[in-house]
Amino acid sequence: MSDNPDAFFLALCQQLGAQAAAAGESPVGAVVVRAGEVVAAAAEATQSQGAITAHAELLALQAAREALGHPNLSECTLYSTHEPCVMCAYAIRYHRIRRVVYGQGSAYLGGASARGPVLSTAQVPPHWAPAPEVVEWPSS
């Protein structure tokens, strides 16, 4: 490992992201690290698994949870090629990840930088469908 563990683990994420891209996925890779050791690593798999929830970060969190035998990952750092989205951000908070280090921000849906209600905002990537009608029941 280099003198800078963040650079080392982000480079590992980049390798995983390159593998994902070569397989036709978004170029995202993520690793969960505890005490300087990789607990889990994953590449984006939304296309191959046919599941929008197969983000690299979620897959890495699930693998770390299985490897450690519990959901408390408070001694861990999550590294990712990209800023985790709001879906991944919820899982990160749920698993009590202590630190998140990422390479590239997400203008629309970053879990640390995004603003606005994701379900109803028009500030989303251009390839997304228009916002759905949202109803709180019973309506007032």
From TrEMBL:
Keywords: Metal-binding, Zinc. The keyword Transferase does not apply. SUPFAM superfamilies: Cytidine deaminase-like (SSF53927). GO terms for biological process: tRNA wobble adenosine to inosine editing. It comes from the Bacteria. Pfam families: dCMP_cyt_deam_1 (PF00383). Residues 4-116 form the CMP/dCMP-type deaminase domain. GO terms for molecular function: tRNA-specific adenosine-34 deaminase activity; zinc ion binding. This is Nucleoside deaminase. It comes from Hymenobacter taeanensis.
